[in-house]
Amino acid sequence: MGTQVSIFIQQIINGLKIGSVYALVALGYTMVYGIIRLINFAHGDFIMVGSYVLLYTIPIMVACGLPAWTAIILAVTACAAVGVTVEKVAYKPVREKGTKMSALITAIAMSLFLENLAQTVFGASPKPVGTIFSFPNLELAGIKLNGNTMLTIAIGVVMMIALQLFVKKTKMGKAMRAVSEDGEAAILMGINKNRTISITFAIGSALAAVASLMYCASYPQATPTLGSMLGLKAFIAAVLGGIGIIPGAMLGGIVVGLVESLTKAYIGTLTGGVITSAFSDAIVFGILIVVLIVKPSGILGKNVGEKV
Amino acid sequence: MKKKMLKKLLALTSVAALAASSLAGCSGGSTAPAESTEASTESTAETTDTADAEEAPAAATGDTITIGTISPNTGNLAAYGESVVNAINLAVEEINADGGVLGKPLAVISYDDKGDSTEGANAFNKLVGEDVCAIIGSVTSGVTAGLAPLADESQIVLLTPTATADTITESDNYVFRTCFKDSYQGKMAAKFAAEELGVTKVAVLYASGDAYSAGLRESFVASAQELGLEIVAEESSSSTDDTEFSSQLTNIAASGAEFLFAPYYYNAVGPYIVPQARAAGYEGVIMGADGWDGTLGTMVDDKTLYNNCYFTNHYSPDDTAEAVQTFVKAYTEKYGTESLNALGALAYDSVYMLADAIEKAGSTDRTAIRDAMSGMSFDGVTGSFVLDETGTPEKSVAIIEFKDGAAVWKTTLAG
Question: Three-state SS for B397?
Answer without folding.
Answer: strand
